[in-house]
Write a structure and sequence with these properties.
33% of the residues lie in helices and 21% in strands. By secondary structure, the chain is α+β, with helices and mostly antiparallel strands. The protein has a single domain (9-117), classed as Aspartate Aminotransferase, domain 1. The chain has a six-stranded antiparallel beta sheet. Strand 1 and strand 2 form a beta hairpin. Helix 2 packs across helix 3 (101-121). The chain is globular and about 45 Å long.
Length: 134
């Protein structure tokens, strides 16, 4: 367990005891940042989260697995995720068997499209990073 909650994504990752889990989450972070460079990194509900027109994706490390939290988008990728444990908004994977980069990129792209479309449908001028009306 972490002694004190992380305030930044760097702190969160540095507090992970398993080297494989640290590497898996750092890899996810690099992929997400390269796919949506405008996304803001924050700690939300105690875990690393990317915001882009609202919540984009989050990720976390647990004792026996890592998770990516892309929300309801999981259902759209059901076929590609058949080898992974999933639930309504969660994808679990083993650190030694990380999600394929191309799949992570596709999920992140889809989430960014959904977020952008939702805000455009509301006809609200917003800040893409914070997801707040301007």
């Amino acid at each position: 367990m972490r002694a004190e909650p992380a305030k930044t994504v760097d702190e969160y990752i540095s507090q992970i005891q398993s080297e494989e889990s640290r590497k898996a989450l750092e890899s996810l972070r690099i992929i997400i940042r390269s796919e949506i460079p405008e996304a803001q990194e924050v700690i939300s509900y105690g875990i690393p989260t990317f915001k882009f027109y609202g919540m984009l994706v989050s990720f976390a490390a647990f004792k026996n697995h890592c998770s990516l939290f892309p929300g309801h988008t999981v259902a759209e990728f059901e076929k590609q995720l058949s080898g992974y444990k999933t639930s309504k908004g969660t994808i679990q994977f083993l650190p030694e068997d990380p999600l394929p980069e191309s799949l992570v990129r596709a999920i992140v792209r889809r989430r960014s499209q959904e977020n952008r479309q939702a805000y455009e449908a509301k006809n609200v001028k917003i800040s893409p990073v914070e997801g707040n009306p301007q």
